[in-house]
Task: structure prediction
Amino acid sequence: MTVRRRWITVLYLSLFLAGLTPQLGYSQTRNPQPASIPAARVPAPVQGTPTTATIKANQAYTLPPEKLAKAITLSRIRHILALVSTLWGLAVLWILLAAHAISGLAGWAERLLKRRWLAGLLFFALFLIITTLTSLPLDIYGEHVSLQYGISVQSWGGWIGDQAKGLGLGVLFGAPIMLLFNWIVRKWPRRFWLGLWVATLPLLVLSIFVAPLLAPIFNKFEPLQKTDPGLVTELEKVVARTGTDIPPSRMFLMKASLKTNGLNAYVSGMGATKQIVVWDTTAGRVPNDEILFIFAHETGHYVLHHIPKQLAGMAVFLFFLYWGCAWFAGWLARRFGERWRADGLGSRTGFIVLLFAISIASFFLDPISNTFSRYFEHQADVYGQEAIHGIVADPQKTAVAAFNSLGQAWLEDPNPSPFIEFWMYNHPSVQSRANFALHYDPWANGGHGKYFDH
Result:
């Protein structure tokens, strides 16, 4: 999330880093509104939200009539905007290539700076700036919708500032990374896809490690022990049960209310950077039991080794993606190279052709990565519900109430299209998660859980 979360291709890894605030707790689609968004007040509890005390046995995820209408409309806007943004990004690359803007920019940079690597840094920096600016109208509309529906409460000045920070980090990290990848393509024209794959793997690990270090650029944090010591005590119960090594010194409250009305709590980082983050819109707005479930869900991603598993899966995925796109980009260069003035994939223009090919392939392969993501999210839901067994009075009611709180805060559609969920959702729908939680009771009749015996 860049200030919204998106992964077009790892060549945009730096843009990914610029807004890498994990949203594992609630995220469904690549929503157009900023996801690490922040605001100036903590709203009152959502009216009609089921609580752990009022949920009935036959309820799952529900919305009051006025919120239901808003959620359906907002979800349609999100989905359309996500699709349009992707297609527009591809169209922009095509237009820049066809209009000779890429080749012209590359030639200008080389005439201005005699050293090839400096010219390359300038070219890729300007390329990132241009492509970011071309997507700005859609981003602005997405933020407008988010404000209109009460999800975002950030000022336009603050939003523009976040966009500028994201772009700055994107240029700072992205230009050198793209220059490196361009050099690999030029150095090994026949096996460049293998070199790109090898270079990408450590960058993926690095992106997870540095995420908590970059988060303060966009949001304010303070020790949770200072603001809510009672919640820290409760969280430590989950930490002890799950065996995760996260001391109170690495538990933080994020001032999300400076930008959003949404709810969330998450775990991010790895090793020395691993930390717990609770949004201030969540602490005090929903019962601590629900926060414990959200946190236990996030902990499940670590205990169940989802990060290394996803990295391994992504490594396999990227191996074949790069291999296939090397052929696809080569075909594009042969078919349109003269028209686009692309002198081989190792040239600056040719490298953008490769980026174009990867972007197209990534769009059509998105459902595959989302399917794996939904599977891991379901596992984390199961783990989270089991982890709070014995800590909260009723894990089923707590989990269902948490999903209702999250869904209502973010205005998630209770009944999304199965096709939309398959193609665009990186989490199961809130409805399916709540329905599962409502009926999941492995301890009934003396049984035991999948991950915990008691």
Observations:
- The first strand starts at residue 221 and ends at 223.
- The chain is about 60% helix and 5% strand.
- Residues 10-36+48-446 form one domain.
- Strands lie at 221-223, 251-254, 265-268, 275-279.
